[in-house]
Design brief:
With 346 residues, this protein is of the alpha/beta class. The chain is 48% helix and 16% strand. The strands form two sheets. The protein has a seven-stranded mixed sheet with strand order 5-4-3-6-7-9-8, with helices on both faces.
Length: 346
């Protein structure tokens, strides 16, 4: 979390009388320290209350002197506090347990991503071309891929109820196509809501495994078909009552994203519904959400050649693909997301 600077120090930096960028350097060190603590089990060990340094080092099987240096930096960063009973988590540290749990999983994934792929950012800006292939990089790192899939699943779990309320299918649908929804969380939610609905999920082969497992666990395997393929080239089955295109378009440059919207609309029957969910380039929310969104946009540009496309642009693509009037429906659970809903004409 941000350093809690005394007012006089903060004012000095705001006036340009000191190197404010030093704070960014310190925060980078704290970021690395927090992830190291996650992976070592520091935060989960402190869930049970304060721990003395020696006891904590013994429990974690780490070097005591080095652990002390790590913990002191986390105290500086506001994640831990040191008192008579040893070290304990602060309210900020309580958000972190382990690299596979809650926001700790998010932090762990972004640490791997930024550390592994953000080199050469200046070349991306200079040339207009991404320097790395995000999905190829993921395939070489199964643990990071699992973490990425977990983050996507948690987002879906948080949003799915509101999504269903804001963007239902037309009438009593029979066929749903989920493009790029490998974890199948949204298509499962729609199928639970509509007993007569069957779903087809099209995504990269490795992305489909979590969805298959989830569908089996839900006892709905007979209502699902999983199609491995690249969204840019795979043939999508037609005659759909509803097509979902959730958190997909930002992974592609504009020409590819527009073509994908056209393919999605083309898979609908006349009167079928296209539902798109995307991250807003300029969310109306907190400063924190706005700041993260700007960093996310730059990450997409650098690692995938994608970007956050303006809502008006996506709506135009939908209409050009044969959809009628497009309705925008903003989510309240996260100001960063919105839904675009339109029915195919004809």
């Amino acid at each position: 979390m941000p350093l809690d600077l005394p007012p006089d120090e903060a004012a000095t930096l705001r006036r340009g009388e000191g190197p404010a960028v030093q704070i960014d350097l310190i925060q980078t060190m704290i970021f690395h320290a927090a992830v190291a603590a996650l992976r070592l089990g520091v935060f989960s060990a402190l869930e049970r209350g304060p721990r003395e340094l020696g006891a904590l080092a013994g429990e974690l099987a780490v070097d005591e002197a080095n652990l002390r240096a790590l913990l002191r930096l986390l105290v500086t960063g506001g994640y831990l506090a040191e008192g008579e009973d040893g070290y304990e988590r602060t309210p900020a540290g309580a958000w972190l347990a382990g690299p596979d749990d809650g926001f700790g999983a998010v932090l762990d994934f972004w640490h791997s991503l930024i550390g592994g792929l953000w080199q050469g950012l200046e070349e991306t800006v200079r040339t207009g071309k991404p320097q790395r292939d995000f999905y190829a990089w993921l395939q070489e790192r199964p643990d990071v891929l699992t973490g990425f899939q977990g983050v996507q699943l948690r987002i879906a779990e948080w949003l799915e109820e509101e999504v269903l309320e804001l963007a239902g299918p037309p009438g009593e649908p029979a066929r749903l196509l989920d493009l790029g929804g490998g974890h199948a969380r949204y298509s499962l939610a729609y199928c639970r809501r509509h007993p007569g609905l069957s779903a087809t999920v099209l995504d990269l082969p490795e992305a489909l495994e979590p969805g298959r497992a989830a569908v089996e666990a839900a006892g709905l395997a007979e209502r699902f078909t999983f199609l491995p393929g690249d969204l840019r080239t795979a043939e999508a089955p037609g005659g759909q009552d509803v097509v979902l295109l959730f958190n997909v378009l930002h992974g592609f440059p504009a020409d590819t994203a527009r073509a994908l919207v056209g393919r999605a609309a083309g898979a609908l029957r006349p009167g079928g519904r296209l539902i798109v969910m995307e991250t807003l380039p300029d969310p109306v929310g907190s400063v924190r959400e706005e700041a993260f969104t700007r960093g996310f946009d730059l990450n997409l540009i650098h690692t995938q050649g994608g970007r956050l496309h303006p809502v008006e642009t996506i709506a135009g693509w939908m209409e050009a693909a044969g959809c009628g009037s497009v309705e925008r429906r903003d989510l309240t659970r996260s100001a960063a997301f919105c839904l675009l809903v339109a029915d195919r004409e004809g």
